[in-house]
Amino acid sequence: METRQELPSKPDPKQNQSLIKLLFLFISTNLLSILLFSNFNPKLFLFQANIPLLLELEATQSNLSFNQAQIKLLQVNLKTTISLLNSHLNKPQKSEPKENNAFTWLESLKGELRLAVGPHKLPLGYTPNLRTDTWQPPIGSMCQLLSADLARYMTYEVGGECPSDAELAQKLMLRGCEPLPRRRCRSKSPARYIDPTPLPESLWQTPPDTSVVWDDYTCKNYSCLVHRAEKPGSYDCKDCFNLHGREKTRWLRDDGGINFSIDQVLKLISPGTVRIGLDIGGGTGTFAARMREHNINIVTTTMNFNGPFNSFIASRGLVPVHLTVGHRLPFFESTLDLVHSMHVISNWIPGLVLEFLLYDVYRVLRPGGLFWLDRFFCVGPQMNETYVPIINKIGFNRLRWHEGRKMDRGERMNEWYLSAVLQKPIN
Question: How many whole angstroms from its chain centre is CA 169?
C-alpha cells in the first residue's frame, strides 16, 4: 500500500502576530526591570547622550560672541579711519598723521617692545582671579602716540646692562606713557658703591656720591646740588638737597597761619592713630624724615627733575616712589592714615585733573584719616571761584583752614597760599 507524505501546512498569519507581540512584551518587560533596578535616570541619560551636541553649541556661541566683538572693534576702527582721512583731506598736514588705532599700533610693534606689550596666554589657561586666559601688561594708552621714544627706550641688549636713559624714561612718564613696560636688562649700579649710613643718622646726613649713577644729571655730585641754591637759574626744589638749611627747620614751628607744625596737626586726631601715610611730591623726603622721628612711616612720591631725588630719599632710609601726579595712587581704598602734599598740588594742575586727584586722595584715606594740603598756590580770584568749590565738593571735613598772601614777589601779584587739614568723614 502506498503511503502518502503530508505536506506542511501554511503558517497561520494570526498565530505569527501573536508570537511577535509575545516576544515584544517579553523583551520590554525585561528591559524595564533592568532599568528600574539599576537606578536609571532618564534625564541624565538624555543629557549624557547630548554632551557632544551641547559642547558644540557652547563653542558656537563663544565664536559668535567673539565675532560680534570683532565686528564692533572693526566698526570703531572704521570710524576712526574715516575721521582721520577726512581730517587729512580737509586740513594740510606737515607730517604723516600719528596712528590713533590701538589695534593697528600693536600689530606694528617689533622686538622687545612687542614682547613686553603682549598679550600673553597664561600657561595654566583660564584663571578665576584674573577672569581670563590672557595676560595683558598694563601699558599707558599714550604710549602709542610716543612710539618713537618708546621704541628707543625698549632698544637694548637682552640680558646686558640697561642704557643710561633715565631721563628718557621720565620724559615718557610725564607725557602720559605710564606705567612703562618692563625690560630684560640690568640697571646700571653706581661705581664704588658703599653701604648706607644706619638709621637714625641717615635721616639728616648727605649721602655719599657713590650712591648715585650721575649720567642723566647736570650736577655730578651732591656738593654741586647742595650749593645749587647759591647759583642763578631755576630748578625744582632748588635748595632741598641742603639738609642743614631750610630743610632742617620745616614743620617744626606753627605760626597760626599757613605754616603748620607736625605736632599741632597730630593733635587734631587721637594719639597714635596716624601710623602710615603718603607725601605727594615730597622732594628729597624731609617731611617723611620728620614723621619718621614720630614713628610714622611715610611713602614719598617724587620725580627726578635734574637731580637724583629718589636715590637721595632712599639713602636717608626712607621709601621713595617714582610716580607722577597723573597716576592713580597705588594704594587700596581706606588704607592710609595721612596724605600730605606741599606745593605740588597747586593751580598748575588742570581743574578737572585736580578734582580726580583729590577724589583719589579721599579714596585711599581711611575713615577719619587726614589730608594735609600744605601751601596750595593760586592767583587772585582763583581761590574762591575755582579751588574752594572743588575742595568742598570732595566731602572732607575742615579741621584747619588758613588762606594767606604770598608776598615775596610783591602785593601787586595777588598771589595766595592755602594751608588746610581736612578729614575724611567716619560715617
Answer: 17
